[in-house]
Amino acid sequence: ILNKDMEKMSKSKGQVVNPLDMKNYVGVDGLRYFLVRDVHLGNDAPFSPDLLIGRVNNDLANNLGNLASRTLNLVEKFFDGKVPEPKTQDPLAKELETSALQLGPKVKAAIEKMAPSHALEAIVELLNQANRYLEERAPWKLAKTDLPATATVLYSSLEVLRLAAFLLGPVMPEKMSELQRRLGQSKM
Predict the structure, then answer these.
(1) What span, in angstroms and rounded, lies between the C-alpha atoms of 38 and 50?
(2) Cβ neighbourhood burial of 42 (10 Å; 0-12, 13-18, 19+)
(3) Helical H segments across the chain, by residue range
(4) pTM score, two decimals?
(5) Which long-range contacts (CB under 8 A, 24 or more apart) does 101-105 make?
(6) What's the CA gap between 37 and 57, in Å, rounded?
(7) Is the C-alpha dihedral spanning 162, 110, 100, 53 positive or negative?
(8) Model confidence over 98-118: pLDDT tens digits?
(9) For 5-30, how does the pLDDT look when each residue is reduced to its tens digit (9 = 90+)?
């Protein structure tokens, strides 16, 4: 583990970071996520509180958290908290579904190659795609004129969240159990 200046951490220089202190900032799940995502097995990797907090904010809060918050709030508002049935054909939803179906094999291949950071990267790519889809379709506006299309958008987003919660579970068991609970899923 390297310091922010890309030098090996050294106790004698006072450049060490106590991971137990870092878990107080982002929790155990957040710290574990950062270490798996940013420390490629067998390689040196920089570490600093800023890098840790930045990764957790970008990947988890602004990406996964944003998708979950918007989707779950809209499902509650327009569908009484029940998973809506997809009602319309949507080419962007089909693209998202295709990407989601490819994710499991990508994650498996990365794990088999002892590259868990690449597995997490693939999950984040799908979350990015789902956020772009949600932004593009704007179900908060669409619901005013086309509730069946809104159902399709929210169903697609819920499916990505369900898949992400399952695949991120080994790295973030507490947070993903909570997300599964919010999605109405039993622990997988």
Answers:
(1) 13
(2) exposed
(3) 19-38, 49-55, 66-79, 91-112, 116-137, 139-142, 147-168, 173-182
(4) 0.89
(5) 103/163, 103/167, 104/163, 104/167
(6) 13
(7) positive
(8) 999 999 999 999 999 999 999
(9) 666 766 666 666 776 788 888 899 99
Q: Which two tokens stand for residue 143?
A: 């619901």
Which amino acid, one-letter code, is at 13?
K
DSSP state of 24: H
Residue given tokens 């920089």 in the structure block: 46
Angle at 88 between CA 86 and CA 90, to 5 degrees: 100
**Helix, coil or strand: residue 8:** strand
Decide: 15 and 9 in contact? Cβ < 8 Å.
yes
